[in-house]
Amino acid sequence: MRTTDGKTARMLQTPKAAAVAGIVAALLLGAAVLLVHLAVPEHPQDTADWVEDTSQRDFLHGALALLPFAGIFFLWFMGAIRDYVGEAEDRFFATLFLGSGFLFVAMLFVMAATTGSLLAVTDVSASPSAGERALWQYGRHLVLELLTGYATRMAAVFVVSTTTIGHRLGIFPRWLAWLGYLVALVLLFAVGGTSHLELVFPLWMLAVSSHVLVVTLRRRRAGGRPDRGAAATP
Q: Within 10 A of 166 (CB to CB), how many other CB atoms are there?
């Protein structure tokens, strides 16, 4: 096979891999964020009852089981997107893309590890002691602060950098670029507490991945050489 044919096949496979990884990561991340909100008490005074509520603890265990796989597929999504961009990437936005993506995953893992440790040291077989209640007060604040205060801000930077790269290269249509900047603004300024607005990030990932997958499938059916600028048609 000639080099050009191999390059064409690689360009067709890369966006498909990015789309599939992005869809899986979006679904896992969205489910984990929703479970965290369902599990963590909305008000500090509810913490004492939460320690003895096994159903909410089960929600949190489910979120902790999903988060590692969400992080893995998110990294795969990052790698496939960067490979698709290739030599055309802008160093400034590529640095923001990589740095924010890595920090986002790291914060998710720190949140998961800390929450798992708090679950492990909390005994549900007996009434919670004053020390356990104080520990969960701390844990509640830490989980929500990591999720809504820091991880979402890194997600906003990731959205901005990815959207800018995709828009400049003509990979994203205009509507998807505007959606990306709107989602970034929400993640930067509107997220907080228990508003559930963090879910706009996995929804944006789902929109991007679905668009890339649809464009890739259309190109494969047409049997033509992939033109990155063609993805920008509104």
A: 24
Q: Domain limits at 67?
A: 12-42+53-212
CA distances from 165 to 41, 105, 177, 197 (A): 39, 20, 10, 24
CA dihedral in degrees (159, 160, 162, 164; nearest 10)?
150
Quick check: is 225 in a domain?
no
- Tell me whether residue 168 is in a domain: yes
Is residue 98 predicted with pLDDT exceeding 60? yes
Q: Does any domain span residue 182?
A: yes
Instruction: For residue range 177-230, list pLDDT tens digits in order.
Output: 999 999 999 999 877 655 678 899 999 999 998 888 888 788 777 765 444 444
In the chain, the number of structural domains is 1
Domain for residue 4, yes or no? no
Spatial CB neighbours of 23, under 8 Å, sequence gap ≥ 6: 205, 206, 209, 210, 213
Burial of 173 (0-12, 13-18, 19+ CB in 10 A): middle
